[in-house]
Amino acid sequence: MEKLTEQQIREHLEELKGWSFKDGFIQKHFVFSDFKETFSIMTRIAFECEEMNHHPNWENVYNNLTIRLNTHDVGGITENDINLAKTIESLVKSK
Ligand SMILES: C[C@H](O)[C@H](O)[C@H]1CNC2=NC(N)=NC(=O)C2=N1
């Protein structure tokens, strides 16, 4: 999987509302209603990640969830990160 250029990353992010490219990661901060809702969506995301064999760096504090994605092997952003971000968005929308 090829490392995307900064220009390519920015183009993809136009379709990913709330996602930004910072410190070598694409990232987004989510706020849900409470811990139960947050952990429930994290569980659904986790199962998709296993299917995709692509996993987030994430931090959860009560109803806050920060997700950071990159591809370790290439030390940057690849289509795998974009695809996972899109999957996360669709799971969050269908919650
Ligand atoms: C060995 C295994 O294939 C790798 O560690 C996979 C698993 N999940 C991964 N997740 C993410 N976000 N980046 C990776 O490079 C990655 N690599």
Please, what is the CATH homologous superfamily?
Transcriptional coactivator/pterin dehydratase
Number of domains: 1
Q: What number is the mean pLDDT?
A: 97
Rounded to an integer, what's the Rg over CA atoms? Answer: 13 Å
- CATH class wording: Alpha Beta
Uncertain regions: pLDDT < 50 for 5+ in a row? none
Q: Major sheet: order of its strands?
A: 1-2-4-3
Per CATH, which architecture? 2-Layer Sandwich
Into which percentage range does the β-strand content fall?
A: 15-25%
Q: What is the third-level CATH name, the topology?
A: Gyrase A, domain 2
| Class by SSE composition | alpha+beta
* Total of helices: 3
- Percentage of residues in helical conformation: 40-55%
Order of helices and strands: HEEHEEH
How far the N terminus sits from the C terminus, by CA atoms, comes to 30 Å
- Name the hetero compounds present: the ligand C[C@H](O)[C@H](O)[C@H]1CNC2=NC(N)=NC(=O)C2=N1
The main sheet comes to:
4 strands, antiparallel
Number of E strands: 4
Shape: globular
InterPro entries: PCD_sf, Pterin_deHydtase
EC number: 4.2.1.96
Organism: Flagellimonas allohymeniacidonis
GO molecular function: 4-alpha-hydroxytetrahydrobiopterin dehydratase activity
